[in-house]
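This section describes the prediction task in plain terms. A model, or a person checking by hand, is given the sequence of a single protein chain and must write out its three-dimensional structure as a string of tokens. No templates, partner chains or ligands are provided. The sample shown here is typical of the held-out split.
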Amino acid sequence: MSSRVVQWATGTTGRLALRAVIDAPDLELVGVRVYGPDKVGTDAGELAGRPPTGIRATDSKADVLALDPDVVLYMARVENNVAACVGDAVDLLAAGADVIATGSPFIDAQSLGPEHHQALTAACEKGGSSFLGLGLFPGFWGEAVAPVLSRLAFGCDRISVREHLSYAAYPSTQLIFDVMGYGQAPDSTTAALSDPSRAAGVFTSTARILAKALGLDLRSVRPVREVAVTDTELTVAAGTIPAGTVGAMRLGVLADCGPVSIAVEHVTWMAPRIRPEWSAPGEGYQIELDGTPSLRCTLVLGTKGEDHSEMGCLATAMHAVHAIPAVRAAATGVLDLADVTNFVGRLA
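The expected answer:
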């Protein structure tokens, strides 16, 4: 079944998704929504590094709605303006387009709060459409892979889902210093994620969806934030990390699901020597099942020297593109990955 697709936003992940849609034989690109004025009117092929397609980019939601797409790959920066992005999704869903969104707040639409969740639900009912949030971490590793690994277990006491990343090459001063809290005193409360409960929101979503997939009752969630200081000054892509300030951190949640606990963690560092036990696994993703048998599964993106961040964006883009047939075949409504029938990538 061919699908008429609109690519919404063409940042790094959106551009890679756009390229995949253009190349896919069973997908028809019908529109591209952009935000930069310099991109308006540009051929989609030029934006994606492909030959001309005849599809010109627009910055108008009305233009997109007029195209009557089957599905929209929504990749705007929802973290910057949740209300506006929810409004976009509501309009698209109410018009009958399925929406696949990659922003982390969309992974579990319930986390957006009752008002936004109800608006999305009502729009799906009006348009007979489906909404799914997905990604990589969150949005794939814990929500889709961990349930599959559970097939191998006789019993399990704890499931740990982790992302390990060096932030030394991240150039964004706002993300590193103002949001994460690197370069600040360990007891500082000025960074956005210095509040463990605020940092925990997206990780709670992963725990909830994983618990749902496994048929577990999520009873309570405790936020976790642990930091470590560097004993020497560090020069990184975002600037300088003074000695005695935060140089590594572990963010996440610990969820009580009765007989099983679920830990979801994001572990980062500016230099591996700060907390060697945190950085020892290297950059990548881990799932551990403490049970019978004990099990550890590791995923590394970019095993041949590719940039880890770019490969993460590509993986996120392809997860969304490959989900199109499953979402189009799914029941009407707001979905998460525990609701969607297992699907695979089209590799040829």
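For orientation: The chain has two domains: 3-134+323-335, 141-303.
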